[in-house]
């Protein structure tokens, strides 16, 4: 598989899985089917849209591939008729979001590498692609954004995966393997945070000094 094909596959996978999480948030709000489609589409394409606008890509990825909108619509309708079967929709959102993050970050890194931007911007594009769709979903859905959960590895997982991709490239790995390594690192950090309580230190206020 070529690198371009891998990036397109990652984009499709991230859109689909993020769309499922958006539709599940809509189910928690007991919205109608149009609300499901809105949340699924907003979440699925949000991060990638912002990435492409910042990088000046034309057209934006889903404009050139309108089948992605059919993908988000199909995901929304599937969740609309099946969400009630899940024992814990919030738990499903957490794990689906983790998998979506693990494919969206390397998609963003891959697009940035193709654009030839600096390493700092490449890392930022990976983080942006992975986090902004979910952030939009949670803010519009009046949920506490996962990116702001106290001490959890979320943005850190995205950042770690993007940096891992650049390190692998620096060590001589092919671009495809670097993107796969990026996905693995993101999933490892996010799953470790969810399952084993991996955390970053949080700020604790102290009394002022005299």
UniProtKB/TrEMBL annotation:
UniProt key word Transmembrane: yes
Domain annotation Glycine transporter: ranges: 9-81, 94-168
InterPro entries: Gly_transporter
TM stretches of this protein: 6-26, 33-50, 62-81, 93-113, 119-140, 152-171, 177-200
Keyword Transmembrane in annotation: yes
Main location: membrane
Topology in the lipid bilayer: Multi-pass membrane protein
Subcellular location: Cell membrane
UniProt keyword terms in alphabetical order: Cell membrane, Membrane, Transmembrane, Transmembrane helix
Record PANTHER family: INNER MEMBRANE PROTEIN, UPF0126 INNER MEMBRANE PROTEIN YADS-RELATED
Family, as annotated: Belongs to the UPF0126 family.
Protein name, UniProt field: Trimeric intracellular cation channel family protein
Taxonomic placement: Bacteria, Pseudomonadati, Pseudomonadota, Alphaproteobacteria, Rhodobacterales
């Amino acid at each position: 598989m070529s690198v371009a094909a891998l990036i397109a596959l990652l984009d499709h996978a991230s859109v689909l899985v993020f769309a499922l999480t958006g539709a599940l948030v809509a189910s928690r709000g007991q919205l109608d089917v149009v609300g499901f489609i809105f949340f699924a589409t907003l979440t699925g394409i949000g991060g990638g849209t912002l990435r492409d606008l910042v990088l000046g890509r034309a057209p934006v990825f889903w404009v050139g591939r309108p089948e992605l909108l059919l993908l988000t619509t199909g995901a929304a309708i599937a969740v609309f008729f099946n969400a009630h079967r899940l024992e814990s929709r919030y738990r499903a959102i957490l794990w689906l979001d983790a998998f979506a993050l693990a494919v969206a970050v390397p998609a963003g890194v891959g697009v940035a590498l193709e654009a030839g931007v600096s390493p700092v911007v490449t890392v930022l594009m990976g983080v942006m692609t992975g986090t902004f769709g979910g952030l939009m979903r949670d803010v519009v859905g009046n949920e506490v954004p996962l990116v702001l959960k106290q001490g959890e590895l979320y943005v850190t997982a995205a950042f770690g995966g993007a940096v891992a991709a650049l390190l692998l490239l620096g060590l001589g790995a092919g671009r495809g393997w670097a993107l796969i390594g990026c996905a693995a690192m993101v999933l490892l950090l996010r799953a470790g945070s969810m399952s084993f309580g991996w955390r970053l230190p949080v700020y604790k206020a102290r009394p002022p000094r005299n």
